[in-house]
Specification:
globular; five-stranded mixed β-sheet; 19 strands; 16% helix; binds zinc ion; single chain; alpha+beta; Fumarylacetoacetate hydrolase, domain 2; 302 residues; twelve-stranded mixed β-sheet; 7 helices
């Protein structure tokens, strides 16, 4: 299943992407459901039942729309929907530095012996399609394509063997980074928490649609038409189960928490000469089996 949040009127609503065209509004399909996807994450069985009921009709509905019929609830046209991030306000976003073999080599760094963790402020999240905003002072902003895992079931002291049980799904993340702040400050928090610096989406793909622990997925980052990063989640030094176990030794993981697993080689700052995002660019993060997260880059207006 592909779970999402979208705006209908002025309110966020949980939904499903049934295919590339047809979205299903979960509340319209089943009014007794909670109106917050976050609340549904620990037990997706009711959502799965709705999916089984409606998914077989998706291609027929797409064909009817193609023939001119207007979408009606519980269905909506995904191509014109304004999507939000699959998690709207997680308790935490935990990011991992130096977790791809090729990215560590690019920085001429030894492979880490344990995960290097930092956090991004949840307020940095930005919806699919919405802009990464720069200001005149922000001249060294970079993009990082990442596989993000979203926690479903709460837990602490989770063993690697139990980790899969705690995963609600996977999505794409762009760990936008202000390299000025990242390298000037003694820690990453400010540079990694820019407003709009956490594009995430377009939806949450449940683990049953992907290989175990999302291994073996191609991951790319394009700036406009230029391929900047190209790797595979097989390159992860610490895979998803080890990360969940390591983090949950120290802190309780809660439903909706996002762990963004690190970025492959090819980021702008390590190019010769370095390159950074500028207004007018478009960044596309694509992960095999999940989809593409596309965000334009703009100058903030005020
Ligand atoms: Zn990163």
């Amino acid at each position: 299943m592909k779970l999402l949040n979208y705006i209908r009127g002025t309110m966020p609503r949980p939904g499903l992407a049934l295919n590339d065209v047809v979205g299903l509004d979960l509340l319209a399909a089943q009014p007794s459901l909670p109106d917050n996807l976050h609340v549904l994450l620990p037990d997706l069985a009711p959502v799965r039942a709705i999916h089984q009921e409606f998914a077989p009709r998706a291609s027929e509905i797409a064909a009817r729309w193609e023939a001119g019929e207007a979408p009606t609830l519980p269905f909506f046209d995904l191509r014109h929907a304004r999507l939000l991030t699959p998690v709207i306000l997680p308790s935490k976003i935990i990011a991992v530095g130096l977790n791809y073999r090729d990215h560590a080599e690019e920085q001429h760094k030894k492979l880490p012996e344990r995960p290097l963790l930092f956090s991004k402020a949840p307020s940095c999240l930005q919806a699919p399609g919405m802009p990464i905003e720069l200001t005149a002072e922000l001249t060294k902003v970079d993009a990082e394509a990442e596989l993000a895992v979203v926690i479903g079931k709460p837990g602490r002291g989770i063993t690697p063997g139990q980790a899969a049980d705690h995963i609600a799904g996977y999505t794409c993340m762009n760990d936008v980074s202000d390299r000025d702040a990242q390298y000037t400050d003694k820690q990453f928090f400010r540079g990694k928490s820019l407003d709009t610096g956490g594009p995430c989406g377009p939806w949450l793909v449940t683990p049953d649609e992907l290989p175990p622990l999302a291994k073996g997925l191609a991951i790319t980052c394009h700036w406009n038409d230029t391929l900047m990063q190209s790797s595979n989640t097989d390159q992860l030094i610490f895979p998803v189960d080890e990360l969940i176990s390591y983090i949950s030794r120290n802190m309780t993981l809660l439903p909706g928490d996002i762990i963004t697993t690190g970025t492959p080689g090819g980021v702008g700052v390590f190019r010769d000469p370095p390159v950074f995002l500028k207004p007018g660019d478009t960044v596309t993060v694509t992960i095999e089996g999940i989809g593409s997260l596309v965000n334009p880059v703009k100058l903030r207006e005020s």
